[in-house]
Amino acid sequence: MTTLGIAALLLILERMLRLFDFVVNQGGPVNVVFRMLASLTPHYMGLALPIGLFLGVLVAFRKISLSSEYDAITSAGVGLPRLVRPILGLSLVLMIINTLLVGWVQPYSRYTYRGLVFDLRSGALGASIRVGEFVNVGDDMTIMIEESRKQGAELLGIFMERRDEQGSKAITARRGGFFATEDDQTILLRLYDGVLVDLNESQNKPRVLTFDEQDLTIRLPARETFRERGGEELELTLPELWKAKDDPNYPADERSTFLGNFHWRVMHSLTFILLPFLAIPMGLVNKRRVRGTGIVVGLGLLIVYNEVMEGMETAVRGGASPYVTIWALFALFALISFGLFRIAAMKVGGEPLAWIDTAWGAISGPIKRLSKRIMGVSDI
C-alpha cells in the first residue's frame, strides 16, 4: 500500500501544479483545483496500481533474498510456484479493482473533470475578477478592483461603468462586495462610501450622487450547458464500449476506436495476473554480487510494454485487428514473464538476469579502469 500511495502521489503532484496554474489563469476559485484532482484520482490510480503491485512484489522478494529468508524457505521444500499463490490472490483482487476503475469509475470521473474545465472557462464556478484589470461583466458593464481581501469577500477601490440605451453611469466606491441571490443568473454588488456620475445624453450636464451604501443588481451573461456524457471512447463504460463498437450508427473510424479501447482496457486488467511472474525473478538477487539490475530492467520492461500497448491501440484505430496487435503484445509479455519465472523456479541457482550482469561487467570493467588511469594522470 505504501508503494501504491507513493506512486499515485508522484503522479498527482505534477498535475496539481499545472492545475493551479490553469485555474489561476482562468480566474477561478482555488478550491476547484482539489475537485479537479479528485476527478483525476481514478485515472492516476489506474496507472499506479500495476506499478505499485510490481514494485511491492519485487522489493519484498529482494528483501527476503538478501536476508537469506528465501534460502531457508526453499530449503524447507517450499518453491516459487507455492510462494506465488497468495500473490496471485492479491493480483486477482487488484485486477477486479482495476476493472471497476477503467470500466466504470474512470469514464464518469473523466466526464466530471471535463465538466469542471468547461464551467471554469465559462465562468460558472464564480471566476474571480482579477485585481488591477478592467474586466467586462456581460455586454453592458466594466469593472476594476484595486485590492481584494478575504479571498474576494471584501473589495477595495472599486470603479465600474454601466451602459444602457440612454448613456452610461460611472461609479466609484471605497469598498464593497458581491453577494449571492436566489437567482443563480443574478448577483448583488453592494457598494459603500461611493460616488455615482450619471452621463445621460439627454441631460445638459452630468448628475453627481454620493452615497453611503448602494446595491446594484448584476445580470450574469447566459452560459451554455455542458454536453451529455459519451460520444468518445474515454467517457464510455465497458458495456457501452461493447455495444458501440458494433453500432452501425457510428462511423467506421469511431467503431474502430471503440474496438481498440475496449480490448486495451481488458488487456490492461489481465496484465495484473502476469506481474507477479515478472516481479519475483526480478527481485531475486545473488548475495555475492548485489545489484539493482532487476529493478531497472523490470521498470524498463513495464514502460516499454505500456508504450507499445498504446501504439497497438492506435494501430487498431487505423483498422488493424486487435488480436494481431494488442493480444499479440499480451502474449509476448506473458511469454517473457513466464520464461523468467521458470528459470528462477525450475533451475538450481537460476538467475534470469545473470547474462545482463555479465554483459554489464564486461562493459563497465574497462570503463572503470580507464577512468582510474585518467584520474591518476590528473593527480600527477
Describe the structure in brief.
The protein has 380 residues and is α+β, with helices and mostly antiparallel strands. Helix content is 58%, strand content 17%. The chain folds into two domains: 2-121 and 229-359, no CATH class; 135-219, no CATH class.
Question: What order do the helices and strands come in, and which of them pair?
Answer:
Blueprint: H1 2-26, H2 31-66, H3 69-75, H4 80-122, E1 135-136, E2 141-149, E3 154-164, E4 167-180, E5 186-200, E6 207-219, H5 238-244, H6 252-283, H7 293-317, H8 326-346, H9 354-379
Helix pairs in contact: 1-2, 2-4, 2-6, 2-7, 4-6, 5-6, 6-7, 6-8
Please provide a written account of the structure:
With 380 residues, the chain is α+β, with helices and mostly antiparallel strands. It folds into 2 domains: 2-121 and 229-359, no CATH class; 135-219, no CATH class. Helices cover 58% and strands 17% of the residues. It contains 9 helices and 6 strands; from the N terminus they run ααααββββββααααα. A hairpin with a 5-residue loop joins strand 4 (167-180) and strand 5. The chain is elongated, with a radius of gyration of 31 Å. The mean pLDDT is 83.
